[in-house]
Amino acid sequence: MRADGTFIAVEVEDAAASDSELARKLTDACPVDIFATNDGGGLEIVQGNLDECVLCRLCLDAAPAGAVKVIKLYDDAALLA
Amino acid sequence: MRLFEFEAREIVKRAGIPVTDYGFTTNPAEAAEIARRIGGPVVIKSQVLTGGRMKAGGVKFADTPDEAEAHARDILALEIGGHMPRGVLVDPKAEVEQEYYAGVVWDGPRKRPVMIFSPVGGIDIEQVAAEQPEAVGRRHFSNILPFSGFEAKEAIAASGVTGSAMNKLVPILTRLARLFVENDMTLAEINPLGRLADGSFVALDAHMDMENEARGRHKQLLADLGVGEEETRQAREATPFELAGEQVDAQDHRGVAGNVTEFDGNLGLVIGAGGGSLTLFDAVRAHGGKPANYCEIGGNPSVSKACGLAKLVLQKPGVDKIAVMMSIVSNTRVDIVARGVIKACLELEMDPAEKIAIFRIPGAWEEEGFKILQRYGVEYADRSVSLNEAARRAVEKIQGVAA
Amino acid sequence: MSILIDAETTFIVQGITGREAVNLTRECLDYGAGAKVVGGVTPGRLGRDVHGVPVFDTVAQAVEHHGGPIDGSVVTVPPAFTKDAVFEAIENGVKLIVIVTERIPRGDVAQMVELATLRGARIIGPNCLGIIVPDVIKMGGIGGPAKNAAQAYTPGPIGVISRSGGMTTEMSSTLSAAGLGQSTAVSIGGDAIIGSTYAELMPLFEADSSTQGIVIYTEPGGRMEAELARWVTEHSSRLPIVAFMAGRFMDEMPGMSFGHAGTIVEGKEDTASEKIERLAQAGITVAERIEDIPGMIRAKIAERGSGALGATAGAAASQGSPA
Fold first, then answer.
1. What residue ranges do the domains of chain C occupy?
2. Which of B371, B387, C168, C305 lies in disulfide reach of C187, CB 3.0 to 4.6 Å?
3. What is the pLDDT of residue C312?
4. pLDDT at B403
5. What is the CATH number of domain C1-127?
6. What is the pLDDT of residues A37-57, one digit of tens each?
7. Sheet holding C122-124, edge to edge
């Protein structure tokens, strides 16, 4: 799944997106509530909060390598490393 | 936060200091009732926060209840210093033999409250202090030790007053000092404190300011007095623009977007932090610019808050461009503010490169911030460009002169 | 050399688990030689750690763990609890307290200051960003992350005192860019009552041989500048002073609240123009623009004594500071 704000986009691999344990971890980790878990335990990206991303990398740390991508739309789609 | 005279008198009364048998009303007929109850000549006093009531005709004497009603009607409709009265006080005209001054105020450099007392009351204490310094007694007092009567006694003695008056005054001044401390006042003044023929004292007027930061500790008192939570009691009432600014600040606790003040120029300002706002405002004016507003962003504002403030300023009638400038920031993020102000432009379907005259915020996360500004073609400056120079460029741009 | 703090200063952070304190702790540990943050205090969180700094319930526990008196504390506790936290620090032997918290009622501040004086302790702030000795140590959020602070602040002969945190960094950065580093920069806070005023810090700078000149930032409102002018005149200070004053436009709008809590303009004494006049009479020059400050302070130092700057630059160079 992918959602785009004006400055930041977030992409999560499909397999990871349906992992409810990971969904919970991501929801806990993000200090600006970009991630949420729906009733079925699935991951949701909160569109309205994308541009609040503080590039803290806590979501990247919480997920398996490559499962989550944070894209800087203002920097030629450079990935947050 | 300034308190009205009728509120201050109520506080004085609650503190156990003798007051006259006054009444407060917003209704001319009721003023007549109060005058009837008092049964003698009265004074009708406008309840406004501004000074100069007497001169403006806001204080009138009435010998009969009918006169009281007529004066009340006039005064309730009388604007003083840009303010309409909250109501009027109907005060018995006291037979005073002598007027004194008693007040407590903070002394910043001494970091203590100071009690000021004088047997020359009824006029401006600053004038007395200048013309008759030996008639003004001062006593700083501890904020850790509970106030003790001898401290009031020393203030009285220093003004030259002695005898039975001193002994009657000590408990009154002690209560005044305690109410100052207990209610977090920044000023508590009784002027005049009148001495009646029988030697007793009564407060004929009261003026108090409560510290804004402490309002939260006195909710019950303020509610009892009828002070609304939303009342700011500034010298000038807040404009809709300013109130909207307060809303932007209140809607999100992340960071500060505050002190939005309306002016009427064409250059909108999104500025901070601390002294940076003051410095930048000065600089814009020094270069002939016409600010549309003053404000202070600081702390660590969210994109949403920065966006909200920028949008408010961009939409103000008469604003051609905005300048986004701050002193070097430590905990405010350059990239977050950049996102916020650019987003404001985009959401209003304005071109950031055209609407933002200059962006000058050096400091935390500036590399990321500069990338964002470059991407949208916004003119920006790093720390090598001073606040003053940034302001100059903003003014130049808006005046259409080639840089 | 410096005033108030040096490489050996030990301090705790009260309120250490809060959002701002967590950042500030990291910054202090990373900056310069690395501050000796020997503990943090957040009631109820005994046993946790923040960036490796142990957290305690009480200051007393922190002192016991340290095995002796702790020099200082950075207090970030919310306004309703600040007085209690500061009293706790003072009563447990802490002698230097930097209060970051803003919006504390001045009655509380007056009590903290009075207790500190009784116990021989010193308060910096409240509503301040702290103290920094360039390349050595910082105590508080001043300058931000270590990398940013290192850009703005460099070691040198100028003592900086400012009522605004952001302006401390702005002025210091301007001085650094002109080759005039700072011996110590102190953000003293913007409130009406503060722990240490300009005049109260002057004797400390006076006694610090590496300080050759002073730069201050000031705003209208309050009488601290008059106090400084008086001190300078009474003590024939060896240190030339340049002041930058913001908020001159406030002369035209009395009664409004701008900038810091201490900046409400009331009565003639507090206007910007009168203040500038008073400072000038004491030999304190007021700069019109921040970029003018380095030239002005350099000239005044040269006027005072030959070679003062040369000697300091030499001393600074031998301490390994950048040229």
1. 1-127, 154-317
2. C168
3. 45
4. 41
5. 3.40.50.720
6. 999 889 999 999 999 999 988
7. C49-50, C53-56, C36-41, C10-14, C72-75, C96-99, C122-124
For A74, the closest of B302, B304, B375 (CB atoms) is B375
Angstrom CA distances, C260 to A81, B131, B250, C102, C247, stand at: 40, 33, 19, 10, 11
Query: Which residues of chain C lie closer than 8 angstroms to B186, CB-CB?
Result: 106, 192
| C65 catalytic residue (yes or no) | no
Question: Per residue in C114-147, is it b (16+ CB within 10 Å) or e — as a string?
Answer: bbbeeeebbbbbbbbbbbbbbbbbbbbbbbbbbe
B105 interface with C at CB cutoff 8 Å = no
What is the reported pLDDT for A7? 98
Taking 70 as the threshold, does the pLDDT of residue C110 lie above it? Answer: yes
Which chains reach chain C with 3 or more Cβ–Cβ distances below 8 angstroms? B
Q: Which fold would CATH assign to domain A2-79?
A: Alpha-Beta Plaits (3.30.70)
Q: Which CATH architecture has domain C154-317?
A: 3-Layer(aba) Sandwich (3.40)
- Stretch C172-201: mean pLDDT: 96
* A7 contacts in chain B (CB < 8 Å): 339, 343, 372
What's the fold here for domain B21-93? Dna Ligase; domain 1 (3.30.1490)
**Is B375–A6 a contact, with Cβ atoms under 8 angstroms apart?**
no
> Tens digit of pLDDT for each residue in B212-250?
889 999 999 999 999 988 787 876 778 899 999 989 998
The domain spans of chain B are 1-20+96-232, 21-93, 240-398
Q: Picking from B249-253, B382-386, C118-122, which range would have the lowest pLDDT averaged per residue?
A: B249-253
Superfamily of segment(s) B1-20+96-232: ATP-grasp fold, B domain (3.30.470.20)
Q: Which two tokens stand for residue C49?
A: 């750690």
Instruction: Please give the Cα distance from B18 to B141 (Å, whole number).
Output: 23
Interface test with B, best of A8, A32, A51 (most B CBs within 10 A): A51
